[in-house]
């Protein structure tokens, strides 16, 4: 027993010695490059103030909040607001709309930047490649207001180019933005166009890191361009694809509200109203902040479960994961 205790004491001393050595090493690294580490101060302050600080406000999902009263609510009500939105048929309608739009964006929109990056990678003319990249990046830097205005102009029943073409062939026009069945197509399609070039950046960076000797070996083995893409290029960028897929799954319910609010109207609520727009109306317009916070917290928990599940299965069936 004495021998075991002596060994344990020695192990504890060694662990403490290593920890002390690592601490001194880290301090010396920070001291040496302190100018670089000072650049982290503003981002850290930003995340504390605007990301982690507001998390304290989630407490009003369990408390009755009155505008002008205590920031943390007036009275503890438990799961009252969670029961309210679970029993609200309007919430489940917006939840269904959010899920459908998100799945469409994931299934249809996610592969487009990958395909676009692979096509760009095959272009041999550097000037033409830069031109295509620049043109494809530009829509990403346009605001949601500009994008919504362009969509309204293009699809206008009276002056829109799309309806002019339709009228030429059919003799009639379609008021796309007033028909619920068209809203999801318009939203997802415009999103693909806007994010195509920007979404391809990470894949292009991953493509540039693939060892060219692998292509040479594939050529020697008689592989054509398609076979090289299938057996060299795609496996080379697969870790990047998996990581971005996990992140996209985690944000499955986080449909942006800006473009939807600019495009939807009461006629299209049945397919266009999503959780974020519902939260806006409940929280800022109806001043029901506790109810809106409960829905937002529910959405965040679902996102956490999704990203954790996607990461678990990715780690189980492949060698790539977020953690």
UniProtKB/TrEMBL annotation:
It is found in: Cell membrane. It is a multi-pass membrane protein. Gene3D superfamilies: MetI-like. The chain crosses the membrane at residues 34-50, 99-119, 131-151, 186-208, 229-257, 289-313. Its main location: membrane. It comes from the Bacteria. InterPro entries: MetI-like, MetI-like_sf, UgpAE/MalFG_permease. Pfam families: BPD_transp_1. Residues 95-310 form the ABC transmembrane type-1 domain. Keywords: Cell membrane, Membrane, Transmembrane, Transmembrane helix, Transport. Belongs to the binding-protein-dependent transport system permease family. PANTHER family: BLL4140 PROTEIN. This is ABC transporter permease. It comes from Clostridium neuense. The lineage of its organism: Bacteria, Bacillati, Bacillota, Clostridia, Eubacteriales.
